Amino acid sequence: MSSNSALTRFARLLALVPFLQSHQGIATSEAAKAMGISEDQLISDLYLLWMCGLPGYSHLELIDLDFESGHISIQNADTLAKPLSLTSDEVLALSMGLSLLASLPDAELYDDLQTAKAKIQAAVVQKSELEQLSRQVLIIPRASTDEMASHYAVIESAITSNCQVEIEYYVPARDEMTTRTIEPLRMRLVDGISYVDAWCLKAEDHRLFRLDRIYRADGLETEMSDRARLKLDLNLATTPLTEYEISLSPSGGWIVERYGAKPIDATTAILAAGDPGWLLRLALSAGGDLVVTSDPRLDQNIRAAARLALSNYGE
Fold first, then answer.
1. pLDDT, tens digit, 9 for 90 and up, residues 58-85
2. What kind of architecture, by CATH, is found in domain 3-80?
3. What are phi and psi of 221, to 5 degrees?
4. Considering the entire predicted model, what is its pTM?
5. If we measure between CA atoms, which residue out of 235, 239, 233, 258 comes closest to residue 248?
């Protein structure tokens, strides 16, 4: 394979990931047609993407693809699902090159060069505005497997010794990293996800903490109070989650698989959630694949949040 064809394929792979993210369940023939390649070449590209991901390169970090049925679904590729963009150095070099070309005596190219330069300058302004906006958004990397194992060991030790633990915990409903002291009671496994059953001194109530959202866990020598176990005895730990009826688009089957929603029919399912804020964020990230139908107020809040997000892009 020549370097030119290798670069062409590399650029195509970068464009393929966000395309598949926004076209979950697309047929391989349709995806190949959209990318302007043969179906065999697309399959070859998918096999290559299968080996791409973040450092660590276990099944937790690699891109997860399913296309054996003739339809493509892609998961665990959020870090590569962003539109391609130029670095500051690339923008500067490209702008200088366009200015140099525009100074040449070629009237036929002048208008096109000025248009390209104007678009790049507008993109630079937009990038600056987005960078200012990004400072208001908390970017949380995924906890590694080793970190989760370490946190698990600390919490298990605290449960055995009846001691408190100080944790840093990410709250997705508020997009906030919090520091709190907890009194862990037990570890629970729900739908393949590990939770810490604990009394939270900050909330002064019983809480379930997802292990993969704990980013620091330090064992304390302070002994656990009696109120944590008293609350557990009152069965507050088994309070049922609220069930919401949701409508799914034809490409929304991944929501059933990933979050354990219970299908009613081909386009409707029941999804249990402990926090409506979490469901709001899921609906926004689903890109139209999910609509809450059983709670009009929550549906209105989701639509309002989507309109607010859209307004950030201008006209």
1. 666 678 888 888 899 888 776 555 555 6
2. Orthogonal Bundle (1.10)
3. -90, -5
4. 0.38
5. 258
